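Risk register update: the risk of archive-format incompatibility is retired. Evidence:
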Amino acid sequence: RVTKTMNVASLGRLEFDEAAHDVSLAANWEYKAKFIIIGYQSLVSPHQYIKVSLKQPQADREVIKQKMVEGYIQDNYESVRITVPSRDGHTEIPISLVYRKDVMDQARDHGKQVHFHLYAYGTYGVSIEDSFSPSRLPLLDRGIVYVVVHVRGGGEMGRQWYEEPDGGKYLCKKNTFNDFIDVAKWLVEVKKWTKPELLSCEGRSAGGMTIGASINQAPDLFRMAILGVPFVDLMATMVDASIPLTAGEWEEWGNPNEKKYFEYMMSYSPMNNVQKNAKYPSILLLGGLHDPRVAFWEPTKMAQTLRHEQGKHSGPVCLKVEMSAGHFSQSDRYKYLESKAFDFAFLLNEVGLAQV
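Archived output:
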């Protein structure tokens, strides 16, 4: 709150009932306004614009517009934010869960193991916001608990969550993958809410590396994995400075022309660490022919490597390259939805929910 003389009268944090949410500042053009407009959404609340009084920001609020989602009954769903202890003994990994209340009641109160789907990114200091997505509802309505894992390498817990020495870049990048595995094991071994046969995971772009490195570390922990336009051929890309984005990416992963970075990057590069004869989950690799960030040959090479190295009891390795897509899938809205439906169909089929 600001006084007439432009002095700050008080500073306060806007509080909301939902622990996992996303707030943004909307366009506010009035210089002497007595209120501001903010954007608000959560894993269960569709996007809305809220008018907030600058005099009483906690008490005086009014929803002025909300996105309507046909057929959606918000009271059937719930979201929570909790933390999971990491293997280092002092870091708490935040995770956001969204689910149907009746599904989570079975796991939490009646000891039934249910399906879980984990999503992560964990690079460039980017925070994965707890935003609403109507396309997530088909998974929730089929009994899947959706989990956003806020691994190190993102920015959810401040700059230290990203930077060395304890973040998720350069020579501490493995924290990203360790965090993801620690959360999955906590859900399976500590909470016993699920089991590997019911556990799936997903990541895109650099998040595809997170998934690729994680399933290399614990291939038998998951039933299926989706790697969308995944940055998995780390070493081949990072040593080729003729690729437009490579030199700039040295600021994230390190320059493999330096010995210390070369050895460390080689120790987690998904392409170079597929376990021979290990039992891998069912895997869907997605690429775009016109992708300028992660070339289509990266998921293609990863698919071939997995098929050659993995054990005979592993799940299928499927490769889908969109011939008219770039890094962010199809630009056409309906083709994008068609691609999303394909991904979900593969996921539901592999975890045994195709007929639900």
